[in-house]
């Protein structure tokens, strides 16, 4: 086992951290002022600076303007970027674009790559991934997919209702999951389509108001009314929608964990600083055992989460499906990040609740992490299936 971080990755991590501290964190004070957290001008300015610093898009191959780092190598880099929720945006490695770029890089035709991937990789556009539907459609159970694409001559005609398509308002294009063959099980009969967002038949109804919002493009409710797309709009092949999505979701879950570890680490640092400076009952707060235990538990959970991320990244990078490990990692990191933030607020008392510190904003935003990319209960179901299978049993 070798846990050492290569020198070039250490160097990039250090420079990303410095960039986030000096250039990005100052924007946090204004995050509530803008519907997207940042103005388009500020975002473009930050991205230009990140390019000039040679730290833009660490996860992308060099031919797409990135740094060409592997999944294992991006672990500390994404954590450093994630020390601010604005950091991954500045570096063009934020959700959902980062996962969408990964998907397109794996499966887009040269024409699709030219049209959709290149501008997205350059940070000139944004994208949305439209999978989840309101009841009775697909949520935790993707087999409940209701959106239909029906053949009409050389075209496909799509009708359906999606919601929580992150980033859709102002995006250049959507990636849509729709059933193309209702006569086979959904996981074999669904297909992914790419479409410019200004195509006729796409109706963005609203940004769904959420706790911890101000994410670029919001989380949108969308209806498709007779959206007509050519066969060339299909990503991969007809019927491959779920297989392709699995390739996107494994690494995307892990990159969420990396970024949120950055926020949780910073929360621990803020709490520790407050605990060493603030006095109560004759000593600094850090002198009281109950505070020490909170700090110790947070540091321990962060360490365990990092190891789980590193191990799962290693498994995926070496061609393993790592389904169970990535579920374990998602559950553990999503839940421990929420606990670390909760403890940090408790340690900082009223100041923790205030907007003078970023903790309360992060706390609101982190709650959704236990739901998106698979709710904790669903990942526990996946883990339990494997555990029970090992003993010859079955879980429905
Ligand atoms: C901030 C945010 C951003 C998102 N971005 C996107 C996006 O860009 N694109 C997209 O397509 N979707 C997106 N989603 C949707 C997300 O993927 C879904 O919310 C998630 O898959 C759960 O589906 P659901 O909300 O319909 O929950 P439901 O399926 O209605 O489930 C509700 C709850 O039931 C419980 N549950 C479900 N199944 C089980 C089970 N087997 N055993 C026990 N309990 C269970 C869980 O606690 C779950 O939270 C986003 C969601 C949020 C909150």
Task: Give a description of the structure.
The chain is an alpha+beta fold and 396 residues long. It has three domains: 7-94, Acyl-CoA dehydrogenase/oxidase, N-terminal domain (Butyryl-Coa Dehydrogenase, subunit A, domain 1); 127-239, Butyryl-CoA Dehydrogenase, subunit A, domain 2, CATH 2.40.110; 243-390, Butyryl-CoA Dehydrogenase, subunit A, domain 3. Helices cover 48% and strands 15% of the residues. It has twelve helices and ten strands. The protein has helices spanning 7-24, 40-53, 74-81, 87-90, 97-107, 110-121, 186-189, 241-277, 289-317, 323-353, 359-366, 376-390; strands at 127-130, 148-152, 155-166, 173-179, 190-196, 202-207, 219-230, 234-235, 279-280, 283-284. The strands form three sheets. Strands 1-4-5-8 form a four-stranded mixed β-sheet. Strands 2-3-7-6 form a four-stranded antiparallel β-sheet, with no helix packed on it. The chain has a two-stranded antiparallel ribbon with strand order 9-10. Helix 1 runs parallel beside helix 3 and helix 3 packs across helix 8 (241-277). The longest helix is centred in the middle third of the chain and has 37 residues, at 241-277. 45% of the residues are buried. The model has no long low-confidence stretch (mean pLDDT 96). It binds flavin-adenine dinucleotide. The site of flavin-adenine dinucleotide has 19 residues, from strand 1, strand 3 and helix 12.
